Structures are given as C-alpha cells and as structure tokens.
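Internal tracking record. Fields below are filled automatically when a chain is submitted to the structure queue. Please do not edit lines marked as system-generated. If the sequence contains nonstandard residues, flag them in the REMARKS field before resubmitting.
Queue: standard
Priority: normal
Entity type: single polypeptide chain
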Amino acid sequence: MAETVVNLGPGESYQVSARGGFREYQFEKTSGPGALSSSGRYVSSDDGTALIRATDRFGAAATARINVHERLRLSPSSVTLIGNGVPRTAVAEISGGSGQHTIVSQTLITNHAELVDAGEHSTLDYTPTSIGIDTIEIEDALGNLVVLTITVTTPDDLVLIPTNGVTTTYGGGDILIAVSGGTPDYAVTYAVTPDSAEPGEITPLLSDTAPFTLTYTPPGSGTGTLTVVLTVTDTTPVTPQTASITVFVTEPLTDGPLTISPGAITATDGTTIEFRASGGVPPYEFERVGPGSGQPVVVNATTVRYTVSFPPGTAQIRLTDHTGESVVAKISVTK
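SYSTEM-GENERATED OUTPUT FOLLOWS
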C-alpha cells in the first residue's frame, strides 16, 4: 500500500492507493467501521480501526490501517505572554485525539512547559522566562499533532491579548481584549471591511490604571464576513508603539472548527497525498513547514496534493484559515 496508516475523524474520507505488483488492484474492507468503494475511497463513521486490503492481479496483497477517532484539538493555537518568569496556568487547552497527550518538542527549553491531566483533555502550564518565540509540539498516542506558538515579550512591548484573529458571529457576545505593556495613555482606532458596513460597538479604554481592557461588541445582524481591525497606540516617547488585532464577524459557522484531513498519515516515498480543509473561516492556505521539500499543489479552494520524499522521515502540512487559526497534519515517510 502507498499508505500504511491514516488517521481520520468521523465523517471524513480518504482515497487509499496501492503501488507495485500488477494492476488492476481490488480494494476491500476486511474489518472495522466505515464504508469503502470499489475504487478505494474510504468514508469513516464511528470511532474504531478499519483495515483495508488491496490485492493485485496475481493475488499479492497489502493492508492499510485507518484509525477513526475524535480530532485532536488545541485552543488557542497561539499565545503572547510577558517574559517575567511568573508561572501561568492553563494557557492553552488540548482535547480529543486518542490516548495520552505528550509534549514531543519545544524550542525555548528554558521556559518550563507542562501538561496537566494529560489524558484526552489537558491544559498547558507555562513559565515565560526567556524572550522569543516558543514552538511546542504535542502528540497523542496515534501520532496526531498540534502545534502551540507562544510569543514571549519584554514588559515594555505593547501587546494585545488575544494576539491572533478572533472570530465571532453577528449578535454574539462582547469580546474583551487586554492591553499590556507599552506606555499609557492609549488611543484606539479601527478600520472595517467592507467600508460601508456597520462596525459594531467599540468601548474605549476607560481605565487609567492597569489592567486595561478594550471591549468590542459585534453588530446584531448581518451577512457575509465583516472584518474589523482594532489598533491601539501608546505614548512611548519619540516612537509610539502600535498593536493590532483583527476581529472576524461571520454568520453562524456550520462546518465546525478548522480541520485538515487526514490528520496524520504514514506513507511510502513518492506517494501523493490529498489533504482537505473544512471548518473555520475560508479562504484557506496550505503550506509545508519544517523538514521536507516542495509545497502542496492546489486542486481547488479546499484541497491540495503533496508528494512525499525520503529523506527526511517526517513532514508537516499546515492549514491556516482567514482568521490566522492553524492546524497541522503530520506525515511519516518510509522507503
């Protein structure tokens, strides 16, 4: 088989493929949940493990394992903290997946990171000591991967928290944005797209002492996607600092959170893998990050194809939506 292990969520599909031997191939599901077409497209259903067998013209056979389970999720995918050495609890939440959650890599190892209750629901405690960008990779027992990016700043840097795009819906509740660092007083401006749209309500910073909080209330109704960029400027002498956050106001999302499918896969050298995006806020962007070569080839607005090579033995495909939220798929490559 070109793919030996594929991880999917319930209700997802994947086209399994065979290599070598003598065509034509016959595909059959020998056990487990889901359905398989005669051409080899598998559609998942309930949690479990499905075995797919491909047989060539002379009876030679190979098997692929498809693991179906709740998606491994991370919220938020990026965090900004002040590098003051003060331990922080529950800076991110990890849920779903299969089995134990484990930190498998971290770039700023001097900053202590620890998973609490690292079963199928975990939180991450973190001590921001060293300044810089810390990339923390967390896996479950089946090799599904989530990547948390923590930006650790100096106390003098002007920072808005949360830092990446925020998504809400028309008529949704207030969004609280904390302002830290820099030099008070602060001024708030905004830009809205489309230009003629009602931006919602922006409550200015009323407090003259920390903590400073900016409140945004989305419009009560609307259609399409409204983009509101909120910018805070401080009064640092000579060169004032600015920090911005983008709020995306949408109609209720029907496809759920941002998802890349498959979530993890083991494939042989030279296999072309099809990745699909769903959920979140389109448009989407796919890219290979870290080891490997080449970039995914766009098929349509939600689908790309990527051909793996060996070495290296692993690669990642990152999917980012319009709000800046991102998820990754892990590829393990064999000869």
